[in-house]
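Structure in, sequence out. Go:
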């Protein structure tokens, strides 16, 4: 089989005639099926060497290039998992149901370029996954965490971010999504820099449309859209953490992710206190705590060896 057909399929640019040829060839033998699987793995598997700070790692395979930018020594976690191989569903053209997951470890940020050229920045403890059929009909990704997207324009293939019960749909645009699901709370917001996106609650069918400098967030379980300075929500990309009239409970939760520490709060009375400020990540967690403790009136102990903070 001509490998160019593989490339066209993986890019979502295969013709219906060539797709039928590929399907027929795969059905001919188990060896052909395995060859296709190996080609798919070669297309999507990342082999990372240990990066250094601010270094951009570019990894090349036989079929395409993906670039990752990693902020510290530990590499991004790339997981390729087999969900199912359902070639028998010819009528659905469901050739290979695989997914790839890219994870930014705690305390780090990762940049990845998707097959269509869409650029994604992943904040600390963020997971992004997409199916191997990405780009064939739609461009769907799943997000748990915070990410900034610069979406490659493709009018025929909408770009959809599924974040828990919320879907953000765009064509070519730039926006930020905050949607950590680990706490069990309904944490979600989307800020738009340019273009236009729709934000929908898939459980209630609520929908809002955002234009530049607007933000969608959840208020008492309901989606609402407001005008805002979206630049504040994008600063984390540059290593700046911005807290604008944010409760200490929210700030401490974010600091746990950003610096990969455990924070134990003995004085619960301070959690409703609000703070405003901007801090550079490289200033460290103790600098941030030293500044905000004057506002929130608390003391703390930091064990650097155990990465543990006690607030009282």
């Amino acid at each position: 089989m001509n490998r160019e057909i593989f490339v066209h399929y993986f890019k979502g640019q295969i013709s219906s005639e060539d797709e039928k040829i590929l399907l027929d060839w795969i059905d001919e033998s188990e060896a052909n099926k395995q060859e296709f699987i190996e080609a798919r793995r070669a297309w999507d598997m990342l082999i990372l060497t240990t990066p250094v700070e601010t270094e951009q790692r570019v990894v090349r395979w036989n079929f395409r290039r993906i670039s990752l930018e990693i902020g510290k020594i530990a590499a991004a976690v790339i997981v390729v998992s087999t969900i199912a191989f359902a070639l028998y569903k010819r009528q659905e053209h469901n050739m290979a149901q695989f997914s790839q997951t890219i994870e930014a470890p705690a305390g780090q940020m990762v940049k990845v370029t998707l097959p269509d050229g869409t650029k994604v920045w992943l904040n600390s403890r963020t997971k992004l996954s997409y199916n191997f059929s990405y780009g064939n009909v739609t461009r769907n990704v799943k997000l748990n965490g915070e990410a900034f997207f610069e979406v490659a324009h493709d009018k025929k293939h909408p770009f959809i971010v599924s974040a828990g019960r919320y879907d953000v749909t765009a064509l070519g645009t730039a926006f930020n999504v905050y949607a950590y699901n680990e706490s069990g709370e309904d944490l979600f917001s989307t800020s738009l820099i340019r273009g236009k996106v729709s934000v929908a609650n898939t459980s209630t069918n609520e929908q809002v449309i955002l234009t530049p400098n607007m933000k969608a967030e959840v208020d008492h379980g309901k989606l609402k859209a407001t005008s805002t300075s979206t630049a504040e929500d994008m600063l984390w990309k540059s290593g700046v953490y911005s807290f604008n009239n944010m409760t200490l409970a929210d700030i401490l939760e974010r600091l746990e992710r950003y610096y990969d520490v455990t924070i134990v709060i003995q004085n619960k009375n301070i959690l409703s206190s609000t703070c405003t400020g901007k801090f550079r990540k490289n200033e460290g967690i103790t600098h941030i705590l030293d500044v905000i403790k004057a506002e929130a009136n608390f003391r703390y102990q930091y064990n650097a060896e155990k990465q543990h903070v006690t607030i009282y």
